[in-house]
């Protein structure tokens, strides 16, 4: 029976039809297997399965389970774990009540919203602005579309197209815009993008980023697209990439999905190929091949934690849910994993982390207390 349920969940997962909870189950256990597996060691799925079955009440099954693929084994294990957790909570109802009390004051997720600051200092709250033209400057119209983004349209040439605009998101906000060259930018929470209304400056398409953004750059071989983040510059002709340059993070991360980019900082230069991620720690550049889905999960409205320290995870949660994080006790050097939709209340993200048994949370107002 468990085999059939697991197979059904996996079939839905592979077909892209699984629920958020089912997706989180498969991905979380998959990451758990990878985190605990010794490098180059064979995976004994039969032993893992029998070992997990032994934790359940009632008679143990002894039939041999065929060796399936890694994901199928993960799905089976998750069903067993889920049953075990249900049994555990049933035996200790006070634990469930305690968790409910901790999350009674739940916090809703962030939303689409941003502030556009024009060259004359005028600020426009985009969530309050009506659809249609919201500003016009030096022959350039700024339009809010029906699907909730802004786009720039150059209607007439002007020598004053370099008027500077800034699009900024507060904590708990995200927004997207289309620049005059038809490049599209998704802005994460607590971030800002500064650019000339006409975009081009001295033969380059240049923007300044603080925070995190995903760029889908329109091709233009004659006008490179440059993203400045502090002393770091990312230069492209036409490509898709993500830049994480939050000031409270130890490193900046630039992740390339398509095309090619050149990253430079204080004379050091690296060329990225698709699948590469460059980390920049105060001018020290390093390249590594990564799973790009993890780097852009936020753009796809997901949190995916893969072997991250709790402090880094909580900074992500703090930005999106607009909360203050307070640690109780010493923060250990352990990593966590999990997956949850960014459309969910904060309790869903916290519960997935608590399932590891290494951390607990309590919500009071807009404060989250972390107990290690």
UniProtKB/TrEMBL annotation:
The keyword Transmembrane helix applies. InterPro entries: FecR, FecR_C, Ferrdict_sens_TM. It holds the Pfam family FecR. The chain crosses the membrane at residues 67-88. GO terms for molecular function: sigma factor antagonist activity. Residues 166-262 form the FecR protein domain. Keywords: Membrane, Transmembrane, Transmembrane helix. Residues 302-370 form the Protein FecR C-terminal domain. This is FecR family protein. It comes from Pedobacter metabolipauper.
């Amino acid at each position: 029976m468990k085999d059939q349920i697991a197979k059904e969940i996996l079939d839905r997962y592979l077909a892209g039809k699984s629920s958020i909870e089912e997706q989180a189950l498969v991905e979380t256990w998959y990451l758990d297997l990878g985190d605990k597996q010794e490098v180059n060691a064979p995976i004994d799925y039969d032993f893992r399965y029998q070992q997990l079955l032994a934790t359940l009440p009632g008679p143990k099954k002894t039939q041999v389970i065929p060796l399936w693929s890694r994901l199928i084994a993960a799905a089976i294990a998750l069903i067993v774990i889920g049953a075990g957790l249900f049994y555990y909570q049933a035996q200790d109802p006070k634990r469930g009540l305690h968790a409910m009390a901790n999350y009674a004051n739940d916090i809703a997720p962030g939303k689409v919203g941003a502030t556009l600051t024009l060259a004359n200092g005028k600020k426009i709250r985009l969530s309050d602005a009506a659809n249609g033209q919201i500003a016009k400057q030096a022959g350039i119209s700024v339009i809010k579309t029906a699907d909730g983004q802004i786009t720039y349209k150059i209607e007439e040439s002007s020598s004053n197209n370099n008027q500077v605009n800034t699009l900024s998101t507060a904590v708990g906000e995200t927004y997207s815009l289309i620049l005059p060259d038809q490049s599209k930018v998704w802005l994460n929470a607590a971030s800002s993008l500064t650019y000339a209304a006409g975009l081009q400056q001295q033969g380059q398409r240049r923007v300044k980023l603080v925070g995190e953004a995903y760029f889908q750059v329109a091709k233009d071989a004659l006008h490179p697209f440059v993203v400045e983040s502090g002393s770091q510059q990312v230069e492209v002709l036409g490509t898709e990439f993500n830049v994480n340059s939050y000031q409270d993070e130890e490193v900046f991360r630039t992740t390339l999905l398509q095309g090619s980019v050149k990253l430079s900082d204080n004379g050091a230069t690296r060329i990225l190929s698709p699948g590469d991620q460059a980390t920049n720690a105060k001018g020290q550049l390093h390249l590594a091949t990564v799973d790009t889905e993890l780097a852009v999960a936020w753009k796809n409205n997901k949190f995916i934690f893969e072997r991250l320290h709790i402090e880094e995870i909580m900074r992500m949660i703090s930005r999106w849910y607009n909360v203050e994080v307070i640690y109780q006790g010493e923060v250990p050097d352990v990593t966590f994993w999990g997956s949850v939709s960014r459309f969910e209340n904060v309790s869903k993200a916290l519960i997935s982390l608590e399932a590891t048994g290494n951390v607990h949370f309590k919500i009071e107002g807009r404060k989250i207390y972390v107990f290690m």
